[in-house]
C-alpha cells in the first residue's frame, strides 16, 4: 500500500510567481464560511489521486461567495462584462501524492453563461449558471444565488455577513483554510493540478447574520449541523493561474 502523502507546509505567503500565466482575475468582497467535516465522509467526493487535507485530524467544507472581476487570458487585460460576475463555490481541501495542498471544487455557481460554458467544456469544472447578486450596505454584504442550468433541484443560497476588524495575525486554522496555492481536478481521466499565486490574504473577522442554503447538500455533502466554525471576510486579491500540471508532475500538452 502506498504511504499517505506528507503535505507541504501551509504557507500564508505565495510560494512564488507563476510562469506562463494562463489566467488573471480578481476575487473581490469574499465571504468564507467553513464547517468541520469527517475526512472519511468527503474522501469519496475527491478526484482519484488526492486525499482530504486535514488539520489535527479534521478537514473542512467551505462555502465561499464573492465577486469575480475582469477575468483575462494569457496576460491579456480582463474582460469588463463577461469577465466580471458573482460566484459562489462549495469546496473541499485536498493534498496530492506529491504533498501539494489545494482545493477541490464540488460546485461553482456563476451568473455569466458564457464563462460557465467555457469552464465546463475546457476545464471540466462543475460550474452552473445561476441568477446571482452581491449587495453591500456599509460593512454588510449579502450574496444570493438561484440555479438556472444545469438544474439540480431547487439549489439556492442567501448569505449575509458583516465585516469586522482586520486580522493582523491569522490563526493556524485561518491560514489553513485560505492560504491555498492550487486546484486539484480531473480532466478527461487525467488528474490535474492548477497552481495560482496572489498577495497574502487581507482577512477580517466577520459575523454571519443570515445563511440559508442547500448548495452543500446539492454537492453531495451532509447538511451542515450548526453554525460554521469559521467566518471570514476579505476585500480581495489579484490572482494569477499558471498552466495546469498532471499529478505525476508533468506539464499537460
UniProtKB/TrEMBL annotation:
<dbReference type="InterPro" id="IPR023375">
    <property type="entry name" value="ADC_dom_sf"/>
</dbReference>
<protein>
    <submittedName>
        <fullName>DUF2071 domain-containing protein</fullName>
    </submittedName>
</protein>
<dbReference type="InterPro" id="IPR018644">
    <property type="entry name" value="DUF2071"/>
</dbReference>
<dbReference type="Pfam" id="PF09844">
    <property type="entry name" value="DUF2071"/>
</dbReference>
